[in-house]
């Protein structure tokens, strides 16, 4: 290891050599994982620079090319990846790969790329070599490259990627490098001459196979290796699987399994290495039931402790120095399967703690008998239930003035004998509505005290703010949009926006007709400002109350900005404290309607800051996912357990669907109330001799009451026999939330009721209006008990509990009643026994009502039985536990119900894979500009490489339907401040600055080609222009000769692309040097993506004879040479700079990019650092360079003369490498920023030394002042 000491460590490069003693079979080779960095070597293809696929098979036998032995081309035969598809797999950092010449439409031939959450620990590997003189000591051919990063900042705010607080400095002096060894044995056999195993008897082979039959290795990306069992050969030896991983602790891991003693003895490690075949973690035969699962992520790991100041190996106090072995140059020597090696100390210690932790958890579980096991020695987990309206009923005694409160009838209210309440510590936060006015601070304080005794925190708002928030934005904007009412519908008198809704005076005008057009939303700005203020107030107050590992459950659309604002508040105080759930209890609209509201994207982003987003039905979840895709460009994936996940800002937001029913105990009790029994009897007596159709609806247009009444009137008209045998008992609720809508709806309903009564008599309708949001439960249940049918005709509706309550209330009746449910209601997909209608189809509805009334007793009972089990067993308690279980399952929960907070804060209870994943995530930190500036100022041979689109230019997601920019024939230019910063950086003679783009050179030059001193690379680096001389206006363009007959490729590709262009509106063809692309960026995202998939299939078939590959990135399908990637040009730039000034080298690299094509830039940086002063004979030169345009080059930039990397003169100097992903996602980069605005901030700060403000003054913060 090389020492480059400095006071600042963030971004510093440490190059680590490793050595291992291993007696391997002939033909095998040893490799070592490269921590979170992929292999920085030249092995592998251009599209797989890491060579990972040459080390580990990917999926099944189809991963191997044809051949007698199953291997081809001097490698494992893994076909070079031919297609990179960002549409399906960009978020993971890798794409869907297909071997050249295969039919990609055939599922059995699909080849899934090697990349998952743990892949960097066991797929990436670095080659190790030996020689006859040093065997069996193996040593890394080139060093493993590690980059030290800042530890997790306590203030990693979404508004600020930097933090100047001194207490956040990285004060740790030891870097823990975790690694594993693996052996690649392509068809190798044991050889007695080397003393390897000597499995030369049938009994020995039986013992081996006995072990292997009981041990199966599984992993997300390596599971397919199970097609390669350990088998005997003709010489009596054993053939080994392709990849073997050391596991000296296999016998310990098997103690609790059914492995026999003799097998355990075979699995122990021999210090001499003579028992290599024993029991590495290898992949065996086809899966069989009863086999023990060994997950590769959980295999033992080694740890090398590195002093970040001296870059030297750190010896702990308990190490026996006499037993340590080192190479001549001071590299510690490990032993293959050496369980006593000091590098396993950290693993042994952590495993001991984990086992003790598990034993304790097992003891606790053994003592419990509930579904949710709680450690009584620890405080119960706290859950904050945040809803705008607290589920309480508050009243004031008119005589004494004393305030009283009780729990309301709500799924959010505390219920008796609740397992949820007994298992968790719930606390409610919200506002309250009172029957008497709150007159002064004394009233407010009395309510705070009263509700605090019920575990509630009440918030109070000024009447103006409260009305603008609730009656204004919530009810006049969001409610209508969420119920699929678009702005054109708003022209209907029933939906005219009541702009006086927030006034305490009687409204007189202010409907939508007062506006110049239905799209003029100027008058709702004040409501939006109040909406922001209320959500921000909730966020501040809740954040004050929460503690680490608390759960915050936000309910309904009134607080849809709260998850984001809470994240911002938590960032201000130091860390992400809570897990967040957002649950919507009303419908979610189709994306076309949701896009109409001016603040729709902000509302979506607010919701997506939750960890779980819940809906009562799949239709609503589907609409939400569609809006996320078409408005924000976010795609979703399926997760384990039937959940869906949306990638947002580097996190997976889980989308869940679950239904809730009534509280069975409460309804059961109410059914026995005297008032309920007498009420039902009175209704039956009042309407004696008539069948009763019941209906209870809110008096609003979308409840469909008018359609119901019109259908009922038509039934009486068409079927006179029903006039004396039928009555509709209709109750209309008037909550006062949408006064204009309610007034007009009531007026219309009264007119229809009056008409029907005048025509058919008073006995056919029993109509009443009830002021308030609900009827008393005893009156409702009385109606249900008396009724023969419940008729619901919702035009748009969320989850309505009344049909569920009706089904439950039919228990014990001789002939259960039937539910008629609208297909537009929330219960449509819940009640399987209901009769389903479209309220707009009057003919079908009439037939359905008649069927319900004449249905046989047997069919009624059958339909009731379909639903009663769900309705009786799915109360709020079970629903709450189900949602929490979804949350905990996605956050590595302990048991079914409780996240163990201590487990989440420490590593004791985590598996090896989870621990390593956490360690990796902790190393992948947000870039802090002060660390970059510190390194920048202390260095003098600097290289800055920037991607263009998405990095220095903010681009919208390809999947977004409405794009504010276009990707046509011209490029967008970076902001003026970024251009000015690039000018300053390029003017510094210590800097070499390049912008690398996938676009053609004409567009790149038009956008930024005028900047003196700036180097350009276009077409993914296939052509490039050295930095422009000061005062010169003409650029010299060079190109890499990649050995492809491009004219022939274009001839074939253009014909196919032209056909797809004609079929796909908005698409066009883009031609560049060594690249031809088909852009669907401006098309409908779903149709364009679909067409792109078929285009790739056809291109691959027709271009199979050419050495090309296909890239689907940023809405463009490109055909490029197989060898081409951005990493080639980046390495060439670095080599050129290093060779200047008598091989002065490079001491600072800043490389930033935003998508999968930029990953090769990151790996090329590490490859360059690895090859410096190392292994010159194996360095692969860059492709030859040809000149495309006239001009001369600076003498200091000999791009036309490729030179091998020489020994640089700065080998003892500090080297800093900042590889930065724009957007937090799986990446080979060492750090990340959020988006192009953070890149702009950094460039401005680097050039001027001043803090930039591209992200200052968020929209909601500007609105807060309006009501302050």
Automatic annotation (TrEMBL):
Pfam families (alphabetical): Glyco_transf_20 (PF00982), Trehalose_PPase (PF02358)
Organism lineage string: Eukaryota, Sar, Stramenopiles, Ochrophyta, Bacillariophyta
Q: What's the protein name?
A: Trehalose-6-phosphate synthase
SUPFAM superfamilies hit by this protein: HAD-like (SSF56784), UDP-Glycosyltransferase/glycogen phosphorylase (SSF53756)
Instruction: Please provide the record's keywords in A-Z order.
Output: Glycosyltransferase, Transferase
Which Gene3D superfamilies does the record match to this protein?
A: Glycogen Phosphorylase B, HAD superfamily/HAD-like, Trehalose-6-phosphate phosphatase related protein, domain 2
Q: Name one GO biological process term.
A: trehalose biosynthetic process
Sequence similarity = In the N-terminal section; belongs to the glycosyltransferase 20 family.
The molecular function terms in GO held by this entry are: alpha,alpha-trehalose-phosphate synthase (UDP-forming) activity; trehalose-phosphatase activity
For this protein, the record's NCBIfam families field holds: T6PP (TIGR00685)
Q: Which InterPro entries would you find in this protein's record?
A: Glyco_trans_20, HAD-like_sf, HAD_sf, Trehalose_PPase
Recorded E.C. number(s)? 2.4.1.15
**GO cellular component, as recorded:** cytosol
């Amino acid at each position: 290891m090389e020492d480059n000491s400095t006071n600042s460590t963030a971004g510093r490069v440490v190059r680590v050599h490793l050595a291992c003693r291993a007696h391997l079979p002939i033909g095998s080779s040893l490799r070592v994982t490269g921590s979170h960095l992929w292999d920085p070597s030249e092995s592998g293809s251009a599209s797989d620079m890491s060579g990972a696929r040459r080390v580990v098979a990917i999926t099944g036998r189809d991963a191997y090319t044809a051949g007698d032995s199953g291997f081809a081309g001097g490698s494992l035969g893994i076909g070079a990846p031919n297609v990179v598809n960002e549409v399906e797999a960009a978020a993971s950092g890798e794409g869907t790969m297909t071997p050249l010449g295969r039919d990609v439409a055939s599922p059995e031939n699909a080849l899934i790329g090697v990349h998952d959450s743990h892949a960097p620990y066991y797929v990436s590997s670095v080659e190790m070599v030996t020689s006859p003189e040093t065997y069996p000591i193996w040593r890394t051919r080139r060093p493993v490259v590690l980059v030290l990063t800042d530890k997790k900042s306590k203030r990693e705010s979404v508004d600020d990627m930097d933090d100047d607080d001194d207490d956040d400095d990285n004060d740790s002096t030891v870097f823990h490098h975790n690694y594993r060894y693996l052996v690649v044995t392509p068809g190798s056999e044991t050889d007695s001459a080397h003393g390897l195993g000597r499995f030369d008897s049938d009994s020995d082979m039986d013992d081996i196979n006995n072990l292997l039959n009981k041990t199966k290795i599984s992993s997300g990306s390596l599971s397919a290796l199970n097609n390669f069992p350990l088998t005997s050969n003709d010489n009596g030896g054993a053939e080994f699987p392709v990849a073997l991983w050391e596991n000296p602790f296999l016998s310990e891991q098997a103690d609790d399994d059914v492995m026999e003693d003799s097998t355990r003895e075979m699995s122990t490690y021999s210090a001499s290495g003579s028992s290599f075949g024993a029991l590495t973690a290898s992949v065996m035969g086809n899966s069989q039931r009863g086999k023990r699962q060994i997950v590769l992520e959980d295999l033992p790991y080694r740890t090398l402790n590195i002093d970040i100041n001296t870059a030297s190996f750190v010896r702990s106090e308990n190490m026996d120095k006499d037993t340590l072995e080192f190479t001549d140059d001071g590299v510690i020597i490990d032993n293959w399967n050496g369980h006593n090696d000091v590098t396993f100390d950290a693993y042994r210690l952590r495993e001991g703690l984990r086992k003790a932790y598990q034993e304790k958890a097992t003891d606790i579980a053994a003592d419990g008998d509930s579904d949710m096991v709680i450690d009584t020695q620890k405080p119960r987990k706290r859950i904050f239930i945040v809803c705008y309206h607290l589920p309480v009923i508050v009243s004031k005694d008119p005589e004494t003035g004393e305030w009283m409160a009780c729990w309301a009838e709500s799924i959010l209210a505390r219920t008796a004998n609740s397992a949820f309440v007994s298992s968790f510590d719930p606390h409610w936060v919200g506002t309250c509505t009172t029957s008497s006015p709150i007159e002064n601070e004394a009233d407010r304080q009395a309510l705070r005290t009263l509700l605090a005794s019920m575990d509630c925190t009440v918030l109070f708002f000024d009447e103006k703010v409260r009305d603008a928030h609730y009656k204004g934005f919530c009810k006049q904007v969001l409610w209508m949009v969420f119920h699929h009412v678009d702005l054109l519908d708003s022209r209907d008198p029933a939906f005219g926006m009541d702009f006086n809704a927030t006034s305490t005076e009687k409204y007189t005008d202010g409907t939508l007709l007062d506006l110049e057009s239905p799209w003029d939303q100027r008058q709702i700005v004040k409501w939006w400002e109040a909406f922001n203020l209320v959500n921000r107030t909730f966020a501040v107050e809740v954040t004050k109350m929460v503690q680490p590992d608390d759960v915050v459950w936000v309910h309904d659309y009134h607080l849809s900005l709260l998850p984001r604002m809470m994240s911002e508040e938590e960032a201000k105080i130091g860390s992400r404290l809570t897990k967040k759930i957002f649950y919507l209890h009303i419908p979610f609209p189709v994306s076309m309607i949701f896009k109409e509201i001016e603040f729709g994207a902000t509302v979506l982003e607010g919701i997506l800051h939750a960890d779980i987003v819940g809906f009562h039905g799949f239709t609503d979840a589907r609409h939400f996912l569609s809006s996320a895709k078409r408005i924000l460009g976010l795609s979703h994936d399926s997760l384990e357990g039937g959940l869906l996940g949306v990638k947002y800002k580097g996190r997976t937001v889980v989308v869940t669907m679950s239904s809730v029913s009534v509280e069975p105990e409460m309804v059961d009790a109410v059914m026995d109330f005297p008032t309920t029994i007498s009420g039902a009897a009175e209704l039956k007596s009042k309407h004696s001799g008539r069948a009763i159709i019941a209906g209870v609806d809110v008096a609003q247009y979308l409840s469909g009451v008018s359609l119901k009444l019109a259908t009922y009137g038509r039934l009486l008209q068409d079927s006179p026999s029903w006039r004396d045998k039928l009555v509709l008992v209709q109750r209309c609720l008037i909550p006062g939330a949408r006064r204009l809508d309610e007034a007009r709806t009531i007026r219309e309903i009264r007119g229809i009721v009056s008409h029907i009564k005048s025509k058919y008599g008073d006995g056919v309708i029993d109509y009443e209006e009830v002021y308030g949001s609900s009827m008393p439960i005893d009156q409702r249940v009385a109606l249900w008990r008396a009724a023969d049918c419940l008729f619901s005709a919702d035009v748009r509706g969320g989850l309505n509990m009344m049909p569920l309550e009706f089904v439950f209330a039919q228990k014990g009746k001789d002939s259960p009643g039937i539910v008629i449910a609208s297909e537009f209601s929330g219960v449509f997909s819940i009640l399987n026994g209901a009769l389903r209608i479209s309220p707009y189809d009057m003919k079908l509805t009439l037939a359905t009502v008649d069927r319900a009334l004449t249905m046989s007793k047997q069919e009624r009972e059958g339909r009731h039985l379909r639903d009663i089990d769900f309705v009786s067993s799915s109360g709020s308690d079970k629903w709450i536990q189900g949602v929490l279980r979804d949350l905990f399952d996605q956050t590595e929960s302990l048991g079914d119900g409780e996240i163990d907070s201590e487990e989440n804060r420490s590593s004791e209870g985590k598996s090896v894979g989870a621990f390593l994943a956490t360690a990796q995530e902790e190393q992948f930190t947000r870039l802090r500009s002060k660390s970059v500036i510190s390194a920048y100022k202390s260095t003098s041979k600097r290289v800055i490489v920037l991607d263009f689109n998405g990095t220095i230019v903010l681009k919208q997601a390809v999947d977004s339907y409405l794009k504010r920019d276009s990707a046509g024939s011209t490029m967008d230019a970076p902001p003026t401040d970024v251009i000015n910063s690039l000018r300053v950086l390029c003017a510094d003679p210590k800097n070499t600055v390049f912008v690398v783009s996938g676009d053609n050179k004409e567009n790149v030059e038009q956008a930024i080609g005028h900047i003196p001193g700036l180097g350009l690379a276009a077409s993914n680096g296939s052509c490039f222009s050295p930095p422009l001389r000061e005062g010169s206006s003409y650029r010299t363009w060079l190109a890499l000769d990649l050995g492809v007959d491009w004219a022939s490729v274009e001839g074939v590709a253009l014909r196919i692309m032209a056909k797809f262009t004609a079929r796909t509106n908005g698409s066009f063809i883009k031609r560049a040097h060594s690249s031809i692309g088909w852009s669907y960026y401006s098309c409908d995202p779903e149709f364009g993506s679909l067409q792109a998939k078929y285009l790739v299939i056809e291109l691959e078939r027709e271009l199979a004879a050419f050495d090309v590959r296909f890239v689907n990135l940023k809405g463009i399908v490109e055909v490029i040479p197989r060898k081409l990637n951005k990493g080639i040009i980046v390495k060439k730039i670095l080599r050129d700079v290093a060779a200047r000034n008598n091989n002065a080298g490079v001491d600072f690299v800043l490389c930033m990019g935003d998508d999968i094509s930029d990953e090769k830039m990151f790996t090329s940086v590490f490859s360059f650092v690895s090859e410096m002063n190392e292994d010159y004979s194996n360095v692969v030169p860059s492709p030859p360079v040809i000149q495309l345009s006239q001009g001369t080059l600076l003498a200091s930039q000999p791009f036309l003369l490729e030179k091998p990397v020489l020994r640089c003169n700065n080998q003892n100097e500090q080297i800093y490498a900042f590889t930065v992903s724009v957007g937090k996602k799986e990446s080979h980069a060492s750090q990340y920023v959020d988006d192009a605005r953070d890149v702009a901030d950094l460039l401005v700060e680097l050039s001027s030394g001043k803090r930039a403000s591209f992200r200052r003054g968020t929209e909601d913060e500007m609105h807060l002042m309006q009501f302050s």
